[in-house]
């Protein structure tokens, strides 16, 4: 019995000593020297090209974080813009290594489509935008309204479910892209448009004329946990993507930023030592260099830094952290332990 207890106690140490077997996706990324990341073609705050044509946003930052973790260089990313119709095909076919484009994580996408969820990097909910001139102040006042929505999205399904549940009638106007939906809404073809509330906030700032004349209604009609997806069959790659995001959240919890990460390597806090690779073994467990998380934080930053510059106080969108704040500040962001 004593021997059994000794072996049981040694299992975590034995596991940490074993290097992860490199999966096919990591091998492909290393061989080409570049991460191929599927992103949204243009949602401000998440992934949209700037004036120089370079993608910026929360999801674009996460692509760079994966590149920093796996290749040591956040710049080694090729962004592949995808639409609602092409996003899943791009991942299934192997055209992209990871899909990071504010995609809602659902049971059927996890099972029938053959994807693995790799964490939630933004908690959202579906909302409605209307013009202030319409006099609509609550979602139930949309009875009889035309509503612009994207095809093949959870928004389209949620709209139907919500209307049936509330026993009201809405007429969906299904448009092929976010640009088409925005144009139709502004032309008066739709009384309202619906998608994730964060996207509505981004569109109101970046794509809507006279944004002060438009209102995002207070109701949220769904849960929209958004996050990266990878293909089934490569658990090692899923682990890398998942723990890259967890490291960004952990860094914020521990007060590690882009500017202080180098000096933090001398900290005596064992949690910081493990995260930054001072205590070895955790990079090896992922099949990565021991400084993988250090590179992520040094080159991209922690989760809070990325949120602030892309969606929060440092951005034109100025979204409140809300549910996306750390759990210690009333939000839902909670890093799994690096042990």
TrEMBL record:
Residues 1-22 form the signal peptide. InterPro entries: Bact_solute-bind_prot3 (IPR051455), Solute-binding_3/MltF_N (IPR001638). Residues 34-264 form the Solute-binding protein family 3/N-terminal domain. The keyword Signal applies. SUPFAM superfamilies: Periplasmic binding protein-like II (SSF53850). GO terms for biological process: amino acid transport. Keywords: Signal, Transport. The keyword Translocase does not apply. It comes from the Bacteria. Belongs to the bacterial solute-binding protein 3 family. PANTHER family: AMINO ACID ABC TRANSPORTER PERMEASE (PTHR30085), AMINO-ACID ABC TRANSPORTER-BINDING PROTEIN YHDW-RELATED (PTHR30085:SF7). This is Amino acid ABC transporter substrate-binding protein. It comes from Teichococcus wenyumeiae.
